[in-house]
Backbone:
């Protein structure tokens, strides 16, 4: 599970904070609308690649679909 929070949104980019398992410090993911790419700006504390990649794909999905919730929980099975 990742907690995601919208940090910044404008015509150029979208930034979400993510926190794996709701513990530790937040990481940051940015989506650039101009070149349509997502990247990790900062890896969250005690974060595995699994959690950061899940958050990255969710932010990309939200940006492409123009569905930008302020706060949400990303859960998976």
Residues:
């Amino acid at each position: 599970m990742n907690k995601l929070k919208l940090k910044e949104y404008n015509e150029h980019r979208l930034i979400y904070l993510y926190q794996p398992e709701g513990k530790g410090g937040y990481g940051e993911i940015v989506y650039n609308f101009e070149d349509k790419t997502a990247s990790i700006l900062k890896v969250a504390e005690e974060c595995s690649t699994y959690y950061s990649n899940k958050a990255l794909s969710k932010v990309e999905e939200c940006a492409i679909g123009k569905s930008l919730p302020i706060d949400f929980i990303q859960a998976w099975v």
Notes: The longest strand covers residues 2-9. The CA atoms of residues 8 and 15 lie 5 Å apart. The chain has one helix and five strands.
